[in-house]
Specification:
Elements: H1 7-19, E1 23-26, E2 35-41, E3 44-57, E4 67-71, E5 85-92, E6 97-101, E7 115-119, H2 120-129, E8 131-135, E9 141-145, H3 150-155, H4 157-160, H5 167-177, H6 185-188, H7 195-218, E10 233-237, E11 253-257, H8 258-265, E12 269-271, E13 277-279, H9 281-289, H10 296-301, H11 319-328
Parallel strand pairs: 3-5
Antiparallel strand pairs: 1-2, 2-3, 3-4, 4-7, 5-6, 6-9, 8-9, 10-11, 12-13
Length: 335
């Protein structure tokens, strides 16, 4: 059997899920549409049925100029995923953005040449910010989101599409989608029911996404300690987010590969105000004494003498974050 012509869209979906640190198990033949997947990480998992089409311009004289849509083909009626989630999606190739529509508004048999619409504004905002809701005249909420928001969309699926039930709640969600700052507690308390958690999750994801994007761009997606790329790089906070003086400034960020991220957080390596990379001789000695020093010579050899610095001075690690972070992690060296 040949691959379904939508297989490239499935690859986009799987890549989006994997890039967020989640795993995928196919529940049906991946060559057949709709796609059925189980996504999981640790003890958390979801079964999802995914319908997807490319997003195109609405077209035609009678349609608004700023309206985009998915043109539904090959499906007479959407079927729910039993004990799971059903996604009706579009993929806007131009901006590499998904759009999600509310299954509950589309449970009836589909008519002739059916389509589902979303505003161009939402697609473009999602391209820039990562996420954008779009309220339709029938109160259906369409959600535009970048691939890095794919798992967050699944996790908050039902709640996100319920925001059409309250204009006050919708306006707060819309405001959160336009800001890189977390929604404050006073505004959160104005939201009804479980939608509070959804706004908090989305707001935090937008903030984290902005930080990650800025840091990764500043460091050219290279590990600051070893220059590795290979899409194995994290945007790490120098001063941990749990500390009250921490921030999401690019100057409090560092691009690190998975290995050196863990080594940095565990005070096995660090860097000083001259950007020199240092390794913890005390911890290294302890590892040798306990026979857990396998690969230590290669580990040290692969470290740069100085961290890889962003070209823009304002993006480089700020000394106030470097010194405080070293103090918190227990470094006793004179910096």
């Amino acid at each position: 059997m040949k691959k379904h012509r939508k297989y490239k869209l499935l690859e986009k979906i799987v890549q989006s899920i994997n890039d967020d640190g989640w795993n995928v198990l196919y529940l049906s033949d991946p060559r057949l549409h709709p796609f059925r997947l189980k996504i999981y990480r640790g003890a958390e998992s979801y079964n999802v049925r995914i319908y997807i089409w490319y997003i195109t311009h609405g077209g035609g004289i009678k349609r608004p100029i700023h309206e985009f849509r998915i043109q539904i083909t090959g499906v007479a009626q959407f079927e729910p995923e039993i004990n799971g989630k059903t996604l009706i999606l579009g993929w806007w190739k131009e901006g590499e953005v998904f759009a999600g529509f509310d299954f509950n508004f589309h449970t009836q048999k589909l008519g002739f040449s059916p389509s589902i619409q979303i505003k161009e504004k939402a697609l473009r905002q999602a391209y820039m910010k990562g996420f954008a809701p779009s309220l339709k005249e029938n109160k259906e909420i369409a959600i535009a989101f970048r691939p890095d928001f794919f798992v967050e969309y699944i996790r908050n699926l039902e709640s996100l599409h319920s925001f059409g039930e309250s204009m006050d709640d919708y306006e707060i969600l819309e405001g959160a989608s336009e800001s890189s700052e977390e929604v404050n507690e006073t505004i959160i308390q104005k939201i009804s029911g479980p939608r509070k958690t959804t706004v908090i999750n989305i707001s935090r994801k937008i903030r984290d996404s902005s930080f990650k994007s800025r840091v990764m761009t500043a460091y050219s997606h290279k590990c600051a300690f070893c220059d590795l790329q290979l899409k194995l790089i994290d945007a790490a906070h120098i001063l941990p987010v749990s500390y009250e003086s921490s921030s999401d400034e690019t100057a409090n960020g560092l691009a690190l590969c998975a290995l050196h991220h863990r080594a940095y957080d565990n005070a096995l390596v660090t860097f000083n105000k001259e950007y020199q990379i240092l390794f913890n001789e005390t911890k290294m000695k302890t590892l040798q004494e306990t026979g857990l020093d396998g690969g230590i010579e290669k580990f040290i050899k692969d470290l740069r003498p100085l961290i890889h610095l962003p070209p823009a001075i304002n993006d480089r690690p700020h000394i106030k974050y470097v010194e405080k972070a070293n103090e918190l992690r227990g470094w006793k060296f004179a910096f």
